[in-house]
């Protein structure tokens, strides 16, 4: 998916997260803030490392954020290929065969 504008990116994030967000740009960085006063339920499960990563991602420019997303898409694709190779290898070695009853 190619994101062309900040409003489009905000719309995509609203759909993916299910949150009501306000989006903006400050100092050549974009920001997203929930419109509610209380934090969402999913934030209660975040660890400090997760919060730091969210802050880091929030400080990226739009171009850098899109580059990061493309990198994650490429990584997911490569992991899928590797898993497929391992499953094929396991099939040929008969290690995935169900035990006979």
Instruction: Return the string of H and E elements.
Output: HEEHH
Please estimate the helix content: 40-55%
Envelope shape? elongated
Q: Report low-confidence residues grouped into runs of 5 or more.
A: none
* Biggest sheet architecture: 2 strands, antiparallel
Amino-to-carboxy terminus distance: 48 Å
Radius of gyration, taken over Cα atoms and rounded to an integer in Å: 20 Å
Average residue pLDDT? 78
Widest β-sheet, arrangement of strands: 1-2
Give the helix tally: 3
Number of domains: 1
Into which percentage range does the β-strand content fall? 5-15%
Number of strands: 2
Alpha-beta content class: mainly alpha
Task: Describe this protein's structure.
The protein has 101 residues and is mainly alpha-helical. Helix content is 53%, strand content 12%. It has helices at 6-17, 48-58, 62-92, and strands spanning 21-26, 29-34. The radius of gyration is 20 Å and the shape is elongated. One of its GO terms (biological process) is regulation of DNA-templated transcription. It holds the Pfam family LIN52. This is Protein lin-52 homolog.
Fill in the keyword field for this structure.
Protein lin-52 homolog, DREAM_LIN52, 101 residues, mainly alpha, signal, 3 helices
Give the SSE layout.
Elements: H1 6-17, E1 21-26, E2 29-34, H2 48-58, H3 62-92
Antiparallel strand pairs: 1-2
Give a brief outline of the structure:
This protein has 101 residues and is mainly alpha-helical. The chain has helices spanning 6-17, 48-58, 62-92, and strands spanning 21-26, 29-34.
